[in-house]
Amino acid sequence: MLKKPSGTFDENYTQDTALVRTPFRWVMLIMLFLLLFGIIPAWAGKYFLDVAINTGITLIAVLGLQILVGFTGQISLGHAAFMGVGAYSSAILSFHLGWPFWVTMPCAALFCALLGLLVALPALKIRGFYIAISTLAAHYIIMWLILHGGKLTQGTSGLPADSITLGSWVLDTERKMYFLIMLFVVAAVFFTSNLMRTRHGRAFLSVRDNDLAAEFMGINVFRTKVQAFLLASVYAGVAGSLLAHYQGIITVEQFTLMDSIWMLGMLIIGGASITGAILGTIFLKVLAQVVMFMAPWIGGIYPAFAGSAVAGFMQVFFGVVILIFLIFEPRGLAHRWQMILSTFRLWPFPH
Questions:
Q1: Per-residue pLDDT in tens (0 to 9) along the chain, 351 residues
Q2: CATH topology of domain 44-346
Q3: Of 70, 155, 216, 348, which is the most exposed, with the fewest CB atoms less than 10 Å away?
Q4: For 254, which DSSP code?
Q5: Parallel, antiparallel, or unpaired for β 159-160 and 249-250?
Q6: 3-state DSSP call for residue 164?
């Protein structure tokens, strides 16, 4: 007779705070790593790897936005602009000075952190809706400066960035870049998960829930919000740097206001958590590919949606998807996933 445990019991604080708490989860984690670093790169084609790489880069940026929005409760509409700053900073150092990626990427993250500090200091003196407006203004200022940067940014012509190298090994294919991007994704998820176990992470959550109560508890609310902006900017800078060196050339059209809005949409769809950021990013990226593949079929049935009209249809469709989640699943895919797990844990006695 197969014996099944009736629950998971923690005997000490270390077990209670462990990221992976049961043998079953260890097995699932190992299988996930085998899928990411074994099966997918071995069997996937160039197109699938390109989608996976872009999804991974976006996920890094969304995890940074999750720290700001989901953990601290601040709204930002300028996250794509910070990602652009990271991309251009890395590309400038690579193209004009010939620095390698392993130097330009930390410099891009540092520059984004300083810029995030510059934006956060005046923005966090206000609250709520006005923070979103101030970050929106920062987006347009940053984009204008990049567009009129002359030879430094090369304006609308695009700024090249060198390929990433590891000694004599050049990461010049999708398969090689896939491994690097996935390593950065795993590191970002691991760091973000552990951040929430520190006193800084608990301070973020306290400020989000009730900043007045957090201040009475001795938490410096302003400093906590600034720290969240700095971390979110660092994530965006790393993601932008990876994007610049992966694509080889960048333009301002890659960092639009709609990109910032869709990042917020990913958190709405996935839910305000690390799991939600992962699920929301994957969901919207996969949905974008499905709609793109269905575009010829849609154009054949409805000629009005043929050609360039499909792009507009995609924006409308994504907006409808976000509205559906706000109405029917406001807590996101992560909440639904937890409900499914709870159902299996309680089976066969779900009531």
A1: 444 455 566 676 666 667 777 777 888 889 999 999 989 998 988 999 999 999 999 999 999 999 999 888 888 888 999 999 999 999 999 999 989 999 999 999 999 999 988 888 776 666 667 788 888 999 999 999 999 888 898 888 889 998 898 888 888 889 999 999 999 999 999 999 998 888 888 888 888 888 888 888 888 888 888 889 999 999 999 999 999 999 999 999 899 998 999 999 999 999 888 999 999 999 999 988 888 777 667 666 666 555 555 666 677 778 888 888 888 888 888 888 888 777 776 666 655
A2: ABC transporter involved in vitamin B12 uptake, BtuC (1.10.3470)
A3: 348
A4: G
A5: antiparallel
A6: strand
Which amino acid would we find at residue 96? H
Q: What is each CA distance from 116 to 135, 148, 335, in whole angstroms?
A: 10, 21, 31
Contact indicator for 208, 72 with CB cutoff of 8 Å = yes
The angle at the Cα of 133, spanning 273 to 276, to the nearest 5 degrees, equals 10
pTM: 0.90
Provide the Cα torsion 92, 95, 97, 101; round to 10°.
Answer: 80
Check if the beta carbon of residue 222 is closer than 8 Å to that of residue 47.
no
Provide the 10 A C-beta neighbour count for residue 43: 8
**Domain residue ranges of the chain, discontinuous segments joined by +:** 44-346
HEC secondary structure over 311-341? HHHHHHHHHHHHHHHHHHCCCHHHHHHHHHH
Residues 223 and 48 sit within 8 Å (Cβ to Cβ): no
- 141 and 79 in contact (C-beta within 8 Å)? no
Residue pair 89/104 in contact (Cβ under 8 Å)? The answer is yes
